[in-house]
Design brief:
Blueprint: E1 4-11, H1 16-29, E2 33-39, E3 48-56, E4 69-74, H2 77-82, E5 87-96, H3 103-106, H4 116-122, E6 126-130, H5 132-139, H6 145-153, H7 161-171, H8 174-189
Helix pairs in contact: 1-7, 5-6, 5-8, 6-8
């Protein structure tokens, strides 16, 4: 199987590292060779965070270059736009429509760009955008946006739901498991 590449992008503190850990576990459990690389940046200060997940028969590097990502999973709309050059021509973006103001917007030095979904579509990208924050809150916690996004991403994979659930069970503390299963289902069925 040819190597596939997934970029998980967001802002520090949104759970992108857990999402990449879950995906890595899932793909390994399905017999793929998997490489995961995390780039933190200023993640603890609300800065941009990107994680690479690559899988296939044999993967030699975790790094994804411009134009190589089959999927971009974005926790925040501006991050989807920022990483758009990394998407393949026939790639897919799965994004939360939540907007988190970056520092230049907070300080008044810039404005948050408007109509980002339309601009991303105009650039030729396929985008699946939804309000994951509302669904996460419905599941029981705003912190479950990452699992809502994985639920949505599962539409694009021919993998059994039981495998996704097994990865949740292996990586999420027991006291949060039912809430995260609900978040996954809400994302999947949105």
């Amino acid at each position: 199987m040819e190597t596939k590449s997934i970029m998980i992008v967001g802002v520090g503190g949104q759970g992108s590292l857990l999402a990449s850990k879950l995906l890595g576990h899932l793909l390994l459990s399905q017999g793929f060779d998997v490489k995961v690389s995390e780039v933190h940046g200023m993640s603890q200060r609300g800065g941009s965070v990107v994680t690479y997940v690559r899988y296939g028969s044999r993967v030699y590097s975790p790094v994804i270059d411009r134009g190589e990502a089959d999927f971009i999973v974005s926790f925040e709309l501006l991050e989807a736009a920022r990483w758009l050059p990394y998407l393949k021509k026939d790639g897919q973006i799965v994004t939360n429509t939540q907007q988190i103001d970056p520092m230049p917007v907070i300080t008044g030095a810039a404005e948050y760009p408007g109509d980002l979904v339309a601009k991303i579509q105009a650039a030729g990208a396929r985008i699946d955008a939804m309000d994951c924050l509302s669904l996460a809150e419905k599941a029981g916690s705003a912190k479950a946006v990452n699992i809502v996004l994985l639920g949505r991403l599962s539409h694009y994979f021919d993998l059994p739901e039981e495998a996704w659930m097994a990865s949740l069970e292996a990586n999420v503390p027991a006291k949060f498991l039912e809430m995260n299963k609900k978040a996954f289902a809400l994302g999947k069925n949105a």
